[in-house]
């Protein structure tokens, strides 16, 4: 990983889902890059108690950051769930409406509420950035996780609308999202070994990402390094979405 370069010096960042996985790695990287980082997660898990599905909790978090830190420059909406239940309960053929709605509540409505709070609270004179977390499942079918892929496609589309809304309002706010492939986090830790291996065989890079690798791309989209990137959905997937349909590896093609 590159050495920290003070890319976020003097900036205030709020990261949701910061108690675990990609959110935790992002919060750590942002702090190393000089940001004041506010770590939010479900009550009891984060420094700021913020269930992202709770509109009032968003306002309370922004009010607190306004009082204590003088406002917010960067929002990373990293809170997310793969399924409200476990295993087959999420498959597209059988996913219950309750499960579907819970996944959409956290992944889509939670991200929407965060973007709305940022649009409402940010000052016109202070440039800002939102980074949302979609997934390669936004672009590829995900029959094992019926609601998840659809919810992440919604996050990618929502990201573009937020970018456009900010531009139409004359707000200096960029909004982008990353589309991670498979990352080594608690979300993927319980995968059955054969399923996990099947994924690895589909990934040209031949492995899952470390959360820090996703965080580096989130840093790019949050910082001035991406000053001309807006409304984008950036794959961070080891080539998963760009793989050839046949012959993933040269070795496979030999003989
Ligand atoms: N791990 C992967 O392979 C992968 C791939 C693509 C996208 N993603 C996305 O990256 C994001 C982070 O995932 P992760 O792998 O780090 O998962 P994780 O399970 O390690 O962390 C998710 C965090 O979100 C929090 N959270 C869940 N519901 C919440 C709510 N209602 N309000 C506030 N916080 C809540 C959890 O407490 C947890 O700390 C998610 O949006 C996920 O969909 C992950």
UniProtKB/TrEMBL annotation:
Signal peptide (from-to): none
PANTHER family from the UniProt entry: 3-OXOACYL-[ACYL-CARRIER-PROTEIN] REDUCTASE, CHLOROPLASTIC, SHORT-CHAIN DEHYDROGENASES/REDUCTASES FAMILY MEMBER
Organism: Sphingomonas colocasiae
Name used for this protein in its record: SDR family oxidoreductase
InterPro entries noted in UniProt: NAD(P)-bd_dom_sf (IPR036291), Sc_DH/Rdtase_CS (IPR020904), SDR_fam (IPR002347)
Family: Belongs to the short-chain dehydrogenases/reductases (SDR) family.
């Amino acid at each position: 990983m590159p050495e920290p370069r003070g890319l976020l010096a003097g900036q205030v960042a709020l990261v949701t889902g910061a108690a675990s996985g990609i959110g935790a790695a992002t919060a750590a990287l942002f702090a190393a890059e000089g940001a004041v980082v506010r770590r939010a997660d479900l009550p009891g898990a984060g420094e700021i108690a913020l269930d992202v599905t709770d509109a009032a909790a968003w306002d309370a978090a922004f009010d607190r950051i306004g009082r204590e830190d003088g406002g917010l420059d960067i929002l990373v909406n990293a809170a997310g769930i793969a399924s409200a239940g476990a295993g087959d309960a999420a498959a597209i053929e059988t996913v219950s409406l309750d499960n579907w709605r819970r996944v959409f509540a956290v992944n889509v409505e939670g991200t929407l509420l965060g973007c709305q709070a940022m649009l409402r609270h940010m000052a016109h004179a202070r440039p800002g950035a939102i980074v949302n977390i979609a997934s390669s499942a936004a672009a590829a079918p995900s029959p094992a996780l019926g609601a998840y892929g659809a919810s992440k496609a919604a996050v990618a589309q929502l990201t573009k609308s937020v970018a456009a809304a900010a531009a139409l309002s004359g707000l200096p706010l960029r909004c982008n999202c990353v589309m991670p492939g498979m990352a080594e986090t608690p979300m993927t830790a319980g995968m059955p070994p054969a399923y996990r291996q099947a994924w690895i065989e589909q990934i040209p890079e031949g492995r899952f990402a470390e959360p820090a690798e996703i965080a580096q791309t989130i840093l790019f989209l949050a910082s001035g390094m991406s000053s001309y990137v807006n409304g984008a959905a950036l794959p961070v997937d080891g080539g998963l979405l760009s793989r050839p349909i046949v012959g993933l590896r040269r070795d496979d093609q030999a003989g």
